Amino acid sequence: MLRDLRISRKLALSFVVLLFLMVCPASAQNTIELIGVTSGEADGVCYVELTMTQSAEYNAFMLTAPERLVVDLEDVVVPDAPKQVMVENGIVKGARVGQYTTEKARVVIDLDCLVGYTVQSRSEGDNQILRITFSDSEGFVQNVTGALFDRESSNARVAVATTGQVSTRISSLKDPLRLVIDLEPAVLVTPFQQLEIGDEAVRGLRLSQYTQDVVRIVLDLAYPLAAVAREWDAATGILPIDLYYRLASLDMSVNEHGVEVIASCSGPMEPSSHLLKEPARFFVDVPGTVPMPGLESSFNPCPPITGVRIAEHLPGQTRLVFDLDYPILPAVTRPDASTLSMVFPTRPVAGKTVTIDPGHGGYAPGAIGPSGAYEKDVVLAISQILEQMLTTSGANVILTRASDINPTWAARIQSAQQDQTDLFISIHANGAIRQQAEGTETFYQTGRDDGRKLAMAVHSELVKTINRIDRGVKARGDLLVLRQAEVPAILVEVAFITHPEEEKLLKDPDFQKQAALGIFLGINQYFGGQRGITYDHTWLPELEPMQKEETSQILDVKLEAKGPSSQWLRDELLVLPEVELLWRASKLPPKQLERNFFILGPLGIPAVGLHPESNVAEAGSSGLAGTRIAKTAERGQTAFERDYLLYMID
Amino acid sequence: MKRFIILAVGTLCIILAIWGIFRLVGPKEINIVLYFASLDGQHLVPVETKVPAVDLGQIVALLLAGPQEADVSATFPQGLSQPKVTLHDGLVYVDFQGDLLVGGLGGTSGETLAVYSLVNTLTQFAEVEAVQILIEGQPVDSLFGHLDTSGPFVADPSLVVGYDSTKNRID
């Protein structure tokens, strides 16, 4: 019985072996073998190729610490596994091949660092080859290791750390407001990330694997934002995604002040603007924004605006260009941080003529500040800015002087007497013996209502723009330039150059611009325009830089000294009788000229001062005059605290 | 008759002597007003002072020297040469040296207060109606480019601190 059983067990075993032998050839034929692991380089990128006897299903994924790519091959056996394969090639340090389960082979490619990859399959003869290529180019599955939010003033961005360029898909979601950035193809190699952000626009950031090859970044927003992905930076491994507010709308309306354009942004904006001539256009740059598509075509221009052009001028900077039919400076206000209002005046001063009279000049410095600033210089600067503002608004401007000269008072008011102008505005800086006197005051001719009206308009705007002490509008009957003016005439004392702080301000180009703006706005108000607008004086359109006149060209003058006509000057300084002096200013650079050259002549007795070291010194006796004048300076006469040679002429 | 004449002459002598004594011992000091600038440079401020006699040159010298008081400001820079002051037919000529024009003064306010401190001070005296400013003997269009100084000035009470503009207004 036992024997029978043994025989039957043997039989059964034989049967099984037989069965196995029968099935085996077929099953051996169906088994996929991994027969080769090689590496190579093509087009500058390196790859690893897995050669199999047939095509197999695979799954590739990246692991970190140490960085490695794992490729699992389904139904693949590896003969004589496990083994190491030497495939060192660039980023690939080696490969290990093993039988993970009986039906799954695993290839681990050890890498130098995380890198993007693709897996492509192709057949070659009887074999099937899987090629795994490593690259940071777009289209490769890139690894996302993190994302951060960062803001530097108007530049907000999400920095995504990836191993290469990935394509982005950006969409917005409402309730609550979110911005969704999908990165594809990409895998997140760090855990889900969630950040709270205390930014004006961005409240939070979440980073997760959305689908198998899509990494999703969700930004929780306070304002609607637009996102623009930039080029991946290989040096830092960062894919920057810039976040911008959207310049959402551009509305235009016409009211009694002019044509008002209101630009609104999806968040706070800090625009800057410029006026350009030829052709006349006003442009506004809004950093940190991108324009809403279709904004341009929705705008119907109205004179003085003849057209509008809107573009992302620089990455993340919207430029609005308003084409104008004449160069005019709009009044700009900021109703709130995300809104910009521009009122293009319908020419309140256009066609009018305004005479601007910068006080003093040439040998008459006017009042002198404690640190040595001359009234003649600061008032000329203010006058030239004002001239620019007026001309760009369509007005004609007569400047009584455009350089450092001193026209006679008769020449100054000539245009105001001969009906050539509509207004006469003399611009001065005040002075007092006591340094503490400060503030702004405006004078008009006693008994002249038109002058009073002009003075009130200009003064009220000026004190608003420069915000100094208001000394009021005053009627005087004894001021030279106002006495005989037939047109409305005023004399504006912007501030005290003898007051140390106001001196500093008067020298400051921004303050000069504010002062000019105040006078400009006052003139507009006088002509009946722009009343009732509250101007934001802190935000000013940029003006074109002014061309400074080359003084050296007009100073090639012949100075003839015919002898003394002032006893005091003769005694106290120096008089050279009968000196004929030809002075070629062009030999001196203009800057040196300013320092070394001085003309004194309050009585119409000009005297010329030159530096002893200049080439002119040989015309007179050098040295002597320098000491003489130093003596004068000791008496507190600040005008001459330098070494000058003096020549008297009539 | 002779006695009468002697008596008359004697009486006259006594009268003259008494008058003479009175002249000598009488009040030596006269109250006058100097106008200086308010500290903010807006107004003229009258400052009373005593002088032994009305000497216009001396009064101008006092004005140019500046105030003793701290609550008012000088109207002229320090260290100017003394101008020549002459009175002719109610018009005072104040003839400055050229040093006035060189430094320290400027601005409409500075020039106005300087000129009217002089004018208002000098015209307080009945014999002075107006003041003509000269530079080295000559009238000038303007000292510092604001005021018309070519002709004589009369006092401007509106510059004096506390002036009530409604009082003397001519509409």
What does this structure look like?
The complex is a heterodimer of chains A (650) and B (171). Helices cover 20% and strands 41% of the residues of chain A. Chain A is of the alpha+beta class and 650 residues long. In chain A, helix 2 (375-392) crosses helix 7 (509-526) and helix 4 (449-466) runs antiparallel to helix 7 (509-526). The longest helix of chain A has 29 residues, at 2-30. Chain A is elongated, with a radius of gyration of 42 Å. The model of chain A is unreliable at 18-29 and 530-650 (pLDDT under 50). Chain B has helices at residues 2-25, 56-65, 107-122; strands at residues 30-38, 44-51, 72-73, 84-88, 91-96, 130-135. The longest helix of chain B is centred in the first third of the chain and has 24 residues, at 2-25. At the A-B interface, strand 31, strand 34 and helix 8 of A face helix 3 of B.
Number of strands of chain A: 39
Helix and strand content put the structural class of chain B at: alpha+beta
Radius of gyration of chain A, taken over Cα atoms and rounded to an integer in Å: 42 Å
Class by alpha and beta content of chain A: alpha+beta
Q: Radius of gyration of chain B from the CA trace? A: 21 Å
Helix content of chain A: 10-25%
Question: What order do the strands of the largest sheet of chain B run in, or round the barrel if closed?
Answer: 2-1-3
By oligomeric state, this entry counts as heterodimer
> Which consecutive residue ranges of chain B, at least 5 long each, have pLDDT under 50?
none
Assess the beta-strand content of chain A as a share of residues: 35-45%
Shape call of chain B:
elongated
The average pLDDT value of chain B, as a whole number, equals: 86
What's the mean pLDDT score of chain A? 75
Instruction: Determine the fraction of residues in helical runs of chain B and give it as a percent range.
Output: 25-40%
Which pair of protein chains has the largest interface, and what are the residue counts?
A-B, 49 and 44 residues
Number of helices of chain A: 10
CATH architecture identity of the largest domain in chain A: Sandwich
Give the count of structural domains of chain B: 1
Q: What is the string of SSEs of chain B from the N terminus onward?
A: HEEHEEEHE
**Strand share of the residues of chain B?**
15-25%
What name does CATH use for the topology of the largest domain in chain A? Immunoglobulin-like
